[in-house]
Amino acid sequence: MKTPRMDRRGRGALVAATRGNVSEATLGYNLAMVGATEIGSLIDRDPAIRAGRPKIAGTGVTVMRVAAWYKMGLTPEEIATQYGHLSLAQVHAALAYYHANPEEIEADLAQEEAFAESVR
User: Fold this and answer.
1) What are the distances in angstroms from CA 116 to CA 17, 67, 70?
2) Do residues 45 and 63 share a domain?
3) Is there a single domain that holds both residue 68 and residue 25?
4) Fewer Cβ in 10 A, N or C end of the chain?
5) What integer pLDDT is reported at residue 1 of this predicted model?
6) Phi-psi group of 46: left, alpha or beta (phi > 0 → left; psi -120 to 50 → alpha; rest → beta)
7) Residue 69's pLDDT is what?
């Protein structure tokens, strides 16, 4: 299977897919979300999962984790592609939550870092 080349706007995968050159698995985030989605439904909390931290609905991936990947330099597209079970919309929703609530997410990141330091 050929890997599609991206044009300068990153449209290669979608263009190639319309020509039948790329499987759905290769497209990953492009095909994950079909139809209208209420933005507020993409992030949730469950006290039984990840200590109730905000997370991407239907997954165990926290907003804190997506924010950490983003702060390490990954683009939203890279995050969605590398973690194939996440759609681009889910990644952007997590980043929107992070940017709307930076104090909460930065506190979670600091707490995680402090814990990591304590066990080293």
Assistant:
1) 42, 17, 19
2) yes
3) no
4) C
5) 38
6) beta
7) 96
Could you tell me the residue range of the domain that residue 23 belongs to?
A: 1-32
Over the chain (120 residues), what is each successive 10-residue block's mean pLDDT? Answer: 40 39 48 70 94 95 97 97 93 97 96 91
Q: Are residues 58 and 1 in the same domain?
A: no
**What does the chain look like in DSSP terms, one character per residue?**
-PPPPP-TTS-HHHHHHHTT-S-HHHHTHHHH--S---GGGSEE-BTTBGGG--EETTSS-BHHHHHHHHHTT--HHHHHHHSTTS-HHHHHHHHHHHHHSHHHHHHHHHHHHHHHHHT-
Looking at residue 94, its pLDDT comes to 98
Per-residue model confidence (pLDDT) at position 20: 46
Q: At what angle do helices 102-118 and 63-71 cross, to 10 degrees?
A: 80
The structure's pTM equals: 0.68
Amino acid at 74: L
